[in-house]
Amino acid sequence: MRLKQPFARRIVIAFVLMTVVVSGFFSLAIVVVVNVVERQLVSWELKEELETVLEQDIPYGRPPRLDARTRFFASDMPQYAIPESLRHFARGFSEQEEDGIAYYVYVKQIGDQRYLLVEDQREIETREKMLFRVVLVCFLLSVLSAWLLGRLLARKVMAPVTRLARQVRHRDQLLPLAPPLAPEYPDDEVGRLAESFDGTLGQLRQSLERERLFTSDVSHELRTPLMVIQGACELLGEAALPPRAGEQVARIGRAAREMQELVQTFLILARSRQEEAAIGGSATLASVAEEQSQRWGPPIRAKGLDFELLVEDADNAAYNLTFLRVVLSNLLRNALHYTESGRVRLILENGGFRVEDSGAGIPEEQRERIFQPFVRGEQARGEGLGLGLSLVKRICTHQGWQVRVSDLAPHGSCFRVRLK
Predict the structure, then answer these.
(1) What are phi and psi of 379, to 5 degrees?
(2) Could you tell me the sign of the dihedral formed by the alpha carbons of 181, 184, 188, 190, in that order?
(3) Which of 383-403 are b and which e, b meaning 16 or more Cβ less than 10 Å from the residue's Cβ?
(4) CB within 8 A of 411, min separation 6: which ones?
(5) Are 65 and 53 in contact (CB under 8 A)?
(6) C-beta separation of 391 from 370 below 8 A
């Protein structure tokens, strides 16, 4: 799995990696150059000293004029006999380590005779180690400096981006009077990003405003004809009508009341939360459950199903009447449509309720999708468009409620709503 690092951290990592590569390359190059130059200089020096000994000292019977670190050996001079450990060296410059001590060896072949100069290199090795330590310390300091500089630069570079992100997250940016962000930034990449955000936010504001006005206006305009329909149904209900006509009038009245509830729900959802209490009303769970039981109990029983209202625990809290009524109504309607035999139960709890049915159940892979708009189960029932459960989910999200669906044994579904 690819790890996602913050952008500022990536800048620091890039600085450090670049410094490691560059400083490491130069440090390695310094070590190599020092070794090469050392070999060349020492080889040239030993060659010059050996030639001086062979041309100016030995022919005149003088001992080799060498410093204390250098020794002379010759195959034709017993007093300068070559030790067994040095006889295997080839002509030219070589290095030898003996008893933990390193030596430079230079061999010159004249006919059948071999001449050697051996120089103790402990002093040079000490200087080399000191140089290598200095190189290592400089390398570590450069990496540390790159880390500090990377953090400083990342903070500097990310400052306008962080500021823009903080402004974007601010909830007041969605207000119509919120000022644009682009004028606060220079004409660079961040400024163009702020300008793009201003354009997108402007379109979002317009869309939200159109949706709010449409929902509010439609809700207001539909209330008058719905009241007329309900009034007409009430007058017709008092008249002496044939049984079939009376049933149709009652059906029209129920549909008008349901539409009135939906209009009220959409109107509240379009308003701010501070305005909900004034138009939504409040009621206890038990009172709304009793109301919906009387409303949906008869059609559920008329389908040949058993219907029960059970109270497991009392709940005296007050909830938004319109929202709670719509949620209960949609869940009971859904249970009615998708249950062919058995029973439907409405069970009240402290802080919530359950709607259980003995229907076909909902496959696990569809339990999240059924709360999406225009999504219906595989065994669709009724004339709905798949908006009932979507509206339930929207209301629960708006109110901070929770709705979940699970299976019941041996078959059926359980919709559980937590109101607290």
Answers:
(1) -105, 70
(2) negative
(3) eeeebbbbbbbbbbeebebeb
(4) 358, 359, 360, 361
(5) yes
(6) no
For residue 277, the model assigns a pLDDT of 47
In DSSP terms, which residues pair with 72 in a beta bridge?
Answer: 117
Spatial separation of the C-alpha atoms in residues 339 and 413, rounded to whole Å: 10
| Rounded Cα distance, 29 and 35, in Å | 10
Q: Are strands 306-311 and 343-349 parallel, antiparallel or unpaired?
A: parallel
In sequence order, the β-bridge partners of residue 106 are: 93, 117
CA-based nearest residue to 276, from 398, 135, 371, 159: 398
Residue 272 corresponds to which amino acid? S
pLDDT of residue 216: 64
Task: Identify which of 147, 140, 76, 165 has the alpha carbon closest to the alpha carbon of residue 113.
Answer: 76
pLDDT the model gives residue 257: 77
Predicted pLDDT at 144: 92
Regions of the chain where pLDDT drops below 70: 1-4, 170-178, 211-221, 269-280, 374-386
- Residue 288 burial (CB count, 10 A): 22
Mind listing the domains of the chain with CATH numbers? 7-145 (no CATH), 189-270 (1.10.287.130), 281-418 (3.30.565.10)
Q: Which residue has the tokens 């020096």?
A: 45
Position 1 scores a pLDDT of 41
Residue 3's pLDDT is: 54
Report the candidate in 111, 74, 108 with the shortest Cα–Cα distance to residue 90. 108
Calculate the CA 359 to chain-centre distance. 40
Question: How far from 329 is each of 39, 83, 301, 333, 381, CA to CA, in Å?
Answer: 95, 109, 16, 6, 16
- Identify the pLDDT of residue 376: 60
pTM of the shown model: 0.50
Q: Sort strands 113-120 and 318-320 into parallel, antiparallel or unpaired.
A: unpaired
Element (H, E) at 24: helix 7-52
Q: How far apart are CA 268 and CA 275, in angstroms?
A: 8
User: What pLDDT shows up at residue 37?
Assistant: 86
| Cβ proximity of 362 and 377 under 8 Å | yes
244 to each of 205, 250, 413, how far by Cα in Å?
51, 10, 35
